[in-house]
Amino acid sequence: MDTTKETISTEAQAAPTVGTYLKSHMRDYGMLIALIVIMGMFQFLTDGTLMRPANLTNLFLQNSYIIIMAIGMLLVIVAGHIDLSVGSVVGFIGALAAVMSVNYHLPTIVVVPVCLIAGLIIGGIQGYWIAYWRIPAFIVTLAGMLVFRGLTLTLLQGQSVGPFPSSFQLLSTGFIPDVFGVGRPNVTAIALGVITSSIIVFLAARTRSRALKYGIQDEPFVFFIVKNVLIAGAIIYLCYLLSTYRGLPNVLITMGVLIAIYTFVTNSTVIGRRIYALGGNEKAAKLSGINTERLTFLTFANMGMLAAAAGLIFAARLNTATPKAGFAFELDVIAAVFIGGASMSGGVGKIIGAVIGAFIMGVMNNGMSIMGIGIDWQQVIKGLVLLLAVIFDVYNKQKAR
Amino acid sequence: MENIILEMRGITKTFPGVKALDNVNLKVKEGEIHALVGENGAGKSTLMKVLSGVYPYGSYDGDILFNGEVMAFSGIADSEKQGIIIIHQELALVPLLSIAENVFLGNENIEGGIINWPHTFKRTQELLKKVGLKESSATLVGRLGVGKQQLVEIAKALAKDVKLLILDEPTSALQENDSAKLLDLLLEFKAQGISSILITHKLNEISRVADSITVIRDGASVSTLDCQVNDISEADIIRDMVGRDLANRYPARDSHIGELLMQVREWNVWHPDSLDRQMIHDIEFHVRAGEVVGIAGLMGSGRTELAMSLFGKSYGKNIQGKVSLRGQEVDVSTVPKAIQCGLAYVTEDRKELGLILEETIQTNTTLANLERVSSRGVIDETIERRVSEEYRKAMRIRTPSVFQKVMNLSGGNQQKVVLSKWLYSQPDVLILDEPTRGIDVGAKFEIYSIINQLADDGKGVVMISSEMPELLGMCDRIYVMNEGRFVGELDKAQASQEKIMSMIVNA
What we know:
The complex is a heterodimer of chains A (401) and B (507). Chain A has 401 residues and is an all-alpha fold.
């Protein structure tokens, strides 16, 4: 019995100071701090271009589809699998949308749901082989990657198809209009920022008060206040910056809603909990009465749908469907999830981590492009950041043992 | 004066925040079997890691003297060069390679950069003979049972010209007859002048083979006992291990046996991969409320296969038979259905099959019954926390909070988490498969008390165990199993180790 060890750790937990708390939660906050540092660095190196409203808007538009897929990929990776096909699915869905809207003149209101369902089916088919036939996800989705890239070429007959009708373009390039009619600054944007940050602070405070009631809160009060002030401040400031340009892009809203939904699903629902259990120890999960096959199937179907959503947004942004659309996206998405702290062996990872990971990649892409660094060195630097992030994670984990 | 082959002097090893070893002394005489005992987490494995160079020279304080010289190992390769070879609890064999390839793995017979296979196979065959294995050296290791694999490990050690053999709980996964063989082998080595250190929880083994005993408790060496001089009883050792007297190893219980809870009839199961192999033959048994029923049998007799096939067909193909609970025939064909019916199965391998090690105690506790802490698919964390706290207290899981990851818990505490999980699923009948495997003496007593409490609460308990004294101490009734069949049934009053063994042997 490790009585000595226990007393030590109990004492350490009795009165955590901000310093010790931060140290023990380095893994949770490390990547967020890294993102802030990277943003600060590029803000300096680009003489303030990075945070200019126009560039910031661009940054969100550029990265929205990666972030949306990172959400789905996080679930897949937490479940202990991988999906290599998402880049090709982005291309295929873009092509499908183009053929439907441009060649057959179908209205956007039909095209969008059809494409989302197509993505759901694609993910479902791949998930079926992985879940019920136990064919490794790496192989199934590698096959999917080839198949859907080929089908993209077939659908488009090797050519770019566009432009899309304007209603379709709104998916990506649309902005929330200012209901207050001020225009610039866009008061709606600021109002939405204030509302969102109040909701976040309110939920955090409620969780904290509940935890305090049970006497199991170890986060220092000062830390709690500072953290929430920073988060709320950051959101409002970002919204303010965006409001001085064209307001909040539609994709930002889509992204925000998806992040909120999936954060809730992973944190608070039975199905979310079970996905973590499945990835953490599949056999134990199965023997605990969890239908692991169905769960695996669902995570892939979900991934397919989110890849379809990303494909629509990407096609809308380029305003054309090209055979090369989505090429190598799967690598950015997977990198984002791992930078965000997910574990290769499954069972560990957070939605917000994947989102931060995607932003780290996005800010680096954007900042380095502004600085005029060539694509060659960009790749090298991105590769090293991925490696460093995972080393940092592993190092923290070993230190914790 | 006998030669001291190994002396570890004042070994102190600190990890950040924890002193794992504090001034530990260990002296092993040449040609003796030295038992190293202590509870889980006492520091035995750490000490052996220091000795074998896993923790290199300089990372600890104190001296290692081997044949009188101070050693400064910087890795396992250094200690193996000196003839100090450790066989870990988890065997380090490659299942898809042959015995010969495994025996000479990392120690290949090389001539001019090329492996001399004929020589390798011949040498292996000789070594196998020494350890009493009749298998061909070309057999794949994966085809062997655990007991034989253990012998392959020993052959591997012999191939390296071993002087000091360290065995870390070598018999924990072995049957009594395999264990006995292994211990005989140690005695044989002793006759040839090879010294060994035997780490074990099984006190009967110690009294059988050990020449001296060192007891470690809380990272410090408590005592060294010489078995040839003194007459040492198991109670003495236990007292040193736990630092207190353990009057009775099995807590007493007044049985109040009630109605018939579960009945299994004509249960037949075939092997999942080869359909012509029948693993379970016509098994019939029942459990009453408030009753602890044991299933005795050697490893490989089909005990785990029986339990897992009952629990949602988790093992086997072509399963036939009937299960009734409280007189009603029930469908237990999937795990969720089995849980729904009130069945729970605590696996023999808690790390592989029982727990999500990366997750917290809280998450593991509610995993099998998330419906009870959620409404419309949303988990109420407040309720979940309250529930897991209740179980933490009731089970006396020693941890600062339910947010502790279970991988940081000791074996006994981990087992209590598994039990919490299954109790929270509110079963009527619990099947416990080796519930005390790899758990130290003190924690075993607590697990036994929990089992007794379950029976007192009117649940039916089926207990599978390889340790016969445990079954005799705990069960109201014992079924004896051999080669997939029940070959006997004994009441508490009639049961004895001899009777069980003779039923198995005469089956």
